[in-house]
Amino acid sequence: MATTTSIVRSPAALLSAKVTVSDHKPTPTVQISRFPSKQPLSSSQLFNSVSNGSRLRVAYQGVRGAYSEAAAEKAYPNCEAVPCDQFDSAFQAVEKWLVDRAVLPIENSLGGSIHRNYDLLLRHSLHIVGEVKLAVQHCLLANHGVQLEDLSRVLSHPQALAQCENTLTKIGLSREAVDDTALAAKHVALHKLKDTGAVASSSAAKIYGLNILAQDIQDDCDNVTRFLILAREPIIPGIQNPFKTSIVFSLEEGPGVLFKALAIESRPLRNQPLRAADDNNGSKYFDYLFYVDFEASMAEERAQNALRHLKEFATFLRVLGSYPVDTTMM
Ligand SMILES: O=C(O)C(=O)C[C@]1(C(=O)O)C=C[C@@H](O)C=C1
Hints:
The protein is of the alpha/beta class and 330 residues long. It contains eleven helices and 19 strands.
């Protein structure tokens, strides 16, 4: 997959910058119509389009019809959703001012964490300014005229395949992973495949002209994916509505007690995953990063106290963002 991203060094250069954010669409010319102020966004600004009336540009990973596009549109109903071929391109598109926000999946109620995005959060310096939860209802799609018994194989995003594991096993289809669910639908349609279906959304069926053979094929009807909204600047944390704060930290000592006590997301450190133990035997143990979401705003004293305390024994601590909780699915 070809990803060509021009390195933009000054805001003026952005006006003529071209970026290929997806190789499945004609190369879009990115026009930055607005340079957001350096001021942090307030939480009330968060869900609105920009004040001069131009549409907010929101990067997502995938092609048209992907769940991530639906999540971007749920977060910002009037936005221009900009497809990116990889998660990393979406991060870069925000950093290079080619778009205003990125909306990326971070965890799913059935499939678990999307580890790649946890790693990318750390490698890039964007801020979490919101979250959006999306109910994911998968369909089994095929070309018109193709019956269920004609299929031997199904294509989809690995998370989607995992979310439909039991159903696909029952039907007896072999699985093949592709970059996103809508791309699977597009591939099946484009190549007029007769023996291969796609697990994707009903809107992907509409966009690529496929037939819906089965609906709601996920193993649990409560299949929810949580997406993070990322921006160049943090928002000013509020206290008027429920806020969440996401942090990442590492510890001097082994992960043991804290890990068990908090049951938090932990990932081996990428640059230096193993740490020598103090036992002089040359033994090593994994050095962990802990990702914690807690339900409090950084504007609250109790959150500031908790982080001050954590800072005393953490070898590394970063606040990834303090943002309003998405209460739409509660
Ligand atoms: O493939 C898509 O349509 C996506 O938007 C990606 C993705 C994911 O990464 O989890 C998003 C929501 C669903 O959980 C399945 C796939």
